[in-house]
Amino acid sequence: MSTLLEMSGVSVSFDGFRAINNLSFQIGEPELRAIIGPNGAGKTTFMDIITGKTKPDEGRILYGDKGISLLGLSESRIAREGIGRKFQKPTVFEAQSVRENLAMALKNPRGPFDVLLYRKTRAGAARIEEIAARIGLSEALTRPAGELSHGQKQWLEIGMLLAQEPRLLLVDEPAAGMTPAEREKTTEMLVDLGRDHAVIVVEHDMEFVRRLNCKVTVLNEGSVLAEGSIDHVTGDPQVIEVYLGR
Ligand code: ADP
């Protein structure tokens, strides 16, 4: 596992309030990582910094094999470099089929040309099938996305992210609002994606995080409070105090 993204000494203030405070963080490729922390810990701001939505006041962020700095890059350029984000609320095209939704998101591996044609090539069609299999929607390819369950819509959106061929995926509360069976499938899906991508999952549900069975980073007051296995971090007295002591 090599390092894909390395953040060091990153700080961000909003009107003098330090939402992110001298934060250092690394993720490898491949790796699945869970980020937890109480409300206001800085989790959303952390993801906004990685995707370029929020620019830090201090620090550095290096990404990829050549260690390019993300600080000077626009959000769209960062996305093109292979960083994809899935927000909590699914935003699929309800009237279009699952296949069409995936086709619309598909990136042509040969560059930004002929993407409309690429969808129709054998390679493009095969890529759509491959993604559908990974998100458990092979049987639903012809169904309108509007007919899918909440959980299936979330998976479709993960599929649309995968169609962009990301290296790093940021996933915000993937299990929120899901049935127990959907949560179980989501766990398996994230573990599977973590085998060949860097995946950062922000999640409140500790039981869900436990099942991901991965390294956990605990944020508090804009800094890393603890890092390690779920058993390690949940046994850390500082983490217990932050979660229970208020
Ligand atoms: P989390 O996602 O862990 O709940 P956030 O990253 O949303 O935490 O917020 C961290 C802190 O920064 C909070 O105290 C929040 O109120 C503050 N904050 C976040 N975004 C802004 C903003 N745009 N303007 C002012 N304060 C903000």
Automatic annotation (TrEMBL):
The keyword Transport applies. GO terms for cellular component: plasma membrane. Gene3D superfamilies: P-loop containing nucleotide triphosphate hydrolases (3.40.50.300). Transmembrane segments: none annotated. Signal peptide: none annotated. One of its GO terms (molecular function) is ATP binding. It comes from the Bacteria. Keywords: ATP-binding, Nucleotide-binding, Transport. Residues 5-246 form the ABC transporter domain. InterPro entries: AAA+_ATPase, ABC_AA/LPS_Transport, ABC_transporter-like_ATP-bd, ABC_transptr_urea_ATP-bd_UrtD, P-loop_NTPase. PROSITE patterns: ABC_TRANSPORTER_2. This is Urea ABC transporter ATP-binding protein UrtD. The lineage of its organism: Bacteria, Pseudomonadati, Pseudomonadota, Alphaproteobacteria, Rhodobacterales.
